[in-house]
Amino acid sequence: MSEVVLVTGAATPGVALAARRLAETAGVRVVAVDTTLPEDDLGPAKFVRADIRTPVISKVLAVEGVNTVLHMDLAPMRPRGTGSATKEINVIGTMQVLGACQRSDTVSRVVMMSSSAVYGTSPRDPAVFKESATARGGTKSGFAKDVVEVEAYARGFARRRPDICVTTLRMAQCVSPHFSSPLGLYFSNPVLPVPMGFDARLQLVHPEDAYAVVEKAATNDIPGTFNVGGDGVLMLTQAARMLGKPTLPLLPIGFGSVLHRAASFMGTDLTPGVHRLLTYGRIMDTSALREIFGYTPKFSTRETFEWYAETLRPGLFQTLGVTK
Amino acid sequence: MKDDLKGIGTSGEAGRGSRATSPSKAARSLAGPAKKAAPKKATAKVAATEPSTATKATATKASATKATATKASATKATATKAAQPKAAPPKKSVPKKAAAPKAKAAGAKKAATESPNRERHLHSVPDDEQKTDETPKEATSGLDPDDVAAAFAEGAKRLLGTDWSVRIANLASALRRRASGEYEVDEFGLDPEMHDLFNSMIEPVAESWFRLQVRGIENIPADGGALLVANHSGTVPVDGLITGYAVMKHTGRPIRPLGADLVFKLPYVGQIARKMGATLACAEDAERLLASGELAAVWPEGFKGVGKPFSERYKLQRFGRGGFVSAAMRAQVPIIPVSIVGAEEIYPLIGNIPSLARLFGLPYLPITPFFPLLGPLGLIPLPSKWIIEFGEPVRTDAYPPEAADDPMLLFNVTDQVRETIQQTLYNLLVERGNPFV
Questions:
Q1: What CATH class does B192-346+381-432 carry?
Q2: N or C end: fewer C-beta atoms under 10 angstroms in chain B?
Q3: CATH numeric code, A4-174+206-229+283-297
Q4: Cβ contact (<8 Å) for B184 and A195?
Q5: What is the pTM of this model?
Q6: Is B67 in a helix, a strand, or coil?
């Protein structure tokens, strides 16, 4: 009997594509669960409508004989959800999934799709985060706080079930033309509001690399926590220039609320908390991913962004021919 | 002739002006029949024109030919200068017109061939029927676009050298490349192009204003990591910029300053600091920089050093907790003591407003002899003489990396570095003498 992989959060942007890819290329049976049908095609993966916030998830584990749980239902924002609903799914959902895994006899591997948000963002941060670093600020609320709590549960789970291999993947920011992401939404605006006097260093991961890492983690026993991100650094102003979009410097005080208002005026709903990332930025060290996990990202941050920028409308300066 | 050239009444009404430049009666009589004419000073006028050539004297309005006008333009420069003190305000348009051909004459021959037309044009102005109010327009309409282009080319050539067009094209392409985001920054945010730009801005300050003298540059390794440890002073941490400039100038290597978190909290300051290669002073970043073979620089005194009163100048404060030594030991790189003399005098700190400083979240709010008193003028640093001496490297590779966890050893090495800097400071101070000479 082949391996069975359970993918949670199938309706979360980008997850359905990961589930489909896993089902098509890795030779495993994939069961995707969520409360709503994903917008993307799941392909050969089987969809089961289940709410991970309820104990029903343990029944799914038992009925399908799941060996690997790929918990990807962590998202900074739901398409139609308030902050408290997001928190409910992120934190309570993770607790239920881990609780179900702890009682399961079949599960031998748990992969947590975490986020680089666990490091927070603050001016007291080191320039480059290693996996051993802890957040020094910026994790008091919102998604970052959720991720910190979720990772704490995962560590507790790993202590209680040492026989289960727990892999935590801290993903850098993702941009893709196929699904929405916090930075993708931000860069789709025609004018980019930036905090005055700050230039954040950004790190991106190409969806191809992210899927490859997830696939490897879901099919191999590689316990530990790994940063996943492309090489190199992109400054926020540099990214805006590459898009040819004008920037709108705003006062750093109250930047968050003005940013959200400006974005909603331009027709996009930004992820809460993205303003901190745009102020201080965040870069992760990926040497553990190469040396221990054994995967070298194919795309650098810059290549990822160029790939994404090609799918966007040309910015104002590009239209005018000021920039290339 | 000169009077004719001046085009009386070409700017403003005749007869106006201060006492120094009051027009002669003769000029006023020429300007218009409405004015009362009194040719009393006409002789003075003639006297003024006498130094000019005979051609000019004979040339009249009616008989001005192209040939004489061309000759006149050659001598015009001196002639107008001679007449300047007595020149009537209406004549003022003439030096303006003369200046343009003069500039061109230096560069292009073309201007000389054009001047006859110009002269004739001028001659038509001072007819008695000429109305005064329409003449100022003519003064500017005489500017030929070709002349402007030639003058611009000449100016650019003088400013940028003979390959000015290449240099301007290069500059434009560089600007466009920057505007398109086609540049690389490293993971700490160092932007090499901006680094060079800022350094070229610091250069005149360091060389001319602070008269920087650098010693012991051979102690900085040409490659591989090293940790520069320096004394901190000057109310505003200018010493970091100047040290970075000195090292860049003499070794071609950028230093990576490790700054307090306040630097990265402040808008613009943090942004520029990162572009200059600075990063947060923490063990992670220090070890990462040193392990990758960079020249990291620390000022372990921190705010205690930079914000100490002027009376305690050149007295080293506590050198932090010795974290820099453990970072250097882990990375097995040498520690280079750096003694900076001169920074203490740039902003003599004579007072502090702790309550206001707390309000702004700053470690101190300085009062210098000039700062709040003269407003923005007080922000100009005093021109003290600077000497930066790079001392003999303190080897750390003699100790095993585990020694970084031995606090006693760390304290010893910290004290050794501190004492070295303090002694060097005293020697340099004696040698330098008066800081402002």
A1: alpha beta
A2: C
A3: 3.40.50.720
A4: no
A5: 0.77
A6: helix
